[in-house]
Design goal:
Layout: H1 14-25, E1 32-33, E2 49-55, E3 58-60, E4 73-79, E5 92-93, E6 112-116, E7 119-121, E8 134-138, E9 149-150, E10 164-171, E11 174-176, E12 190-197, E13 204-205, E14 220-224, E15 227-229, E16 242-247, E17 258-259, E18 273-280, E19 283-285, E20 298-305, E21 312-313, E22 330-335, E23 338-340, E24 353-358, E25 368-369, E26 373-374
Length: about 400
């Protein structure tokens, strides 16, 4: 096919022939290949995986933009037998390095040393594996060298005296002591130097206060002043701080009377019920110039006694004579008296008379005959009544 319309190339016209020739030159030509050649009989390797090839040739090459030729080479895999494997390679390592240093200032049980080695040949084809490349061990006890450290010097302190020659001091302290052969601490931890305070200072006082009012009995009025700066180092001492040069006018000052101390309270005036207890005092100094003398010479307070007081009886008297002379139905009596009557609602239930039975003379003594009766009538006795 042509990219332009075909022209009739017949004829002898040279221009027409040239045009036709130009048109034919630009027609596209596709590639044309022959059929495949049979795969070769031999594999590319004598053992292990390999391949076989086959080829084909070009019959017509592509031209003027025609379709390009396809691949001219084709292959397939092939394998005759397994190849023998490579030799085993064992792991190889370098010599051990030196043990690492143990740190100072740390307890041995908390630290450890380390050493290592590197792999120079890695194992291959089933060779021996590599051993450990790092080892550890505990650090042995170690005394670490440590230098002494002291602080900086402090500023000088105050002078030891406020007047004259004195001394002031500055110090430094040990921050960390030396150990295990470290640099020792200096022995000089304080420095002193002289200080001089010999300049005298005079006393200075404030101005006088106003005159204070007169007090009763005072002869002079008073005014004061106070020290502002104390004298020092032999300076001028302070003058008097009190001025009494202004006399007070003569006046009579009110004076109250003075009292003695109160006496003790007297006993209560009543032994039963309400009464009064009294105490006294006296004037020691009379009042003067309009003074007062308040209060009294006597003071009292109410008291009361309400204990129940029962009556009290005296001892019993002796037993009296029997009430009959003869016989056995007599009565004997004895008495006692009340020595303290009841008071303050007390009671008196004590007996003042006691009696007991008694017998007279025997029958024979009284002339009594059991058959004929009494020979003589006995004296009639009066009955006794017991008082309560």
């Amino acid at each position: 096919k042509s990219r332009s319309r075909k022209a009739n190339c017949a004829g002898s016209n040279s221009n027409a022939n040239a045009y036709c020739t130009a048109i034919i030159k630009y027609c596209p030509v596709d590639c044309v290949v022959n059929t495949w050649v049979t795969f070769g009989a031999k594999c590319s390797t004598t053992c292990g995986p390999g391949y076989k090839l086959r080829t084909r040739s070009v019959n017509t090459k592509a031209a003027f933009g025609g379709v390009a030729c396809p691949t001219l080479l084709d292959g397939v895999s092939c394998s005759l037998k397994d190849c023998p494997g490579p030799p085993k390679v064992d792991c190889a390592v370098s010599p051990w390095s030196s043990w690492s240093a143990c740190p100072c200032g740390v307890p041995a049980r908390a630290t450890r040393q380390t050493r290592s080695r590197t792999i120079t040949t890695y194992p291959a084809h089933g060779g021996q594996d590599c051993p450990n490349t790092v080892e550890y061990r505990a650090c042995p006890p170690k005394c670490c060298k440590q230098d002494c450290i002291v602080s900086a010097w402090s500023a000088y302190g105050p002078c030891t005296t406020s007047c004259g020659l004195g001394i002031k001091t500055r110090t430094r302290s040990i921050v960390r002591a030396a150990r295990c052969g470290g640099r020792a601490c200096p022995t000089l931890l304080s420095k002193r130097k002289k200080c001089d305070r010999v300049k005298p200072r005079n006393c200075q006082v404030n101005s006088w206060t106003p005159w204070l009012p007169c007090k009763c009995g005072s002869k002079n009025q008073q005014r004061l002043r106070y020290i502002h700066v104390q004298p020092q180092c032999g300076g001028r001492p302070c003058p008097s701080l009190t001025d009494l040069r202004k006399p007070c006018p003569l006046t009579c000052c009110p004076q109250d009377c003075t009292w003695s101390h109160w006496s003790a309270f007297s006993a209560c005036t009543a032994s039963c019920g309400y009464g009064i207890r009294v105490r006294y005092r006296k004037v020691l100094t009379e009042e003067s110039c309009g003074g007062a003398c308040n209060g009294g010479l006597v003071d009292h307070k109410i008291c009361r006694h309400f204990p129940a007081i029962n009556c009290l009886a005296g001892p019993w008297g002796t037993w009296g004579k029997c009430s009959i002379v003869c016989g056995k139905a007599g009565t004997q009596v004895r008495r006692r008296s009340i020595v303290r009557p009841a008071s303050c609602r007390g009671t008196c239930r004590l007996r003042t008379l006691q009696s007991k039975p008694c017998s007279g003379l025997p029958d024979a003594a009284c002339g009594y005959n059991k058959v004929r009766g009494p020979l003589k009538q006995p004296r009639e006795s009066k009955p006794f009544v017991e008082n309560v």
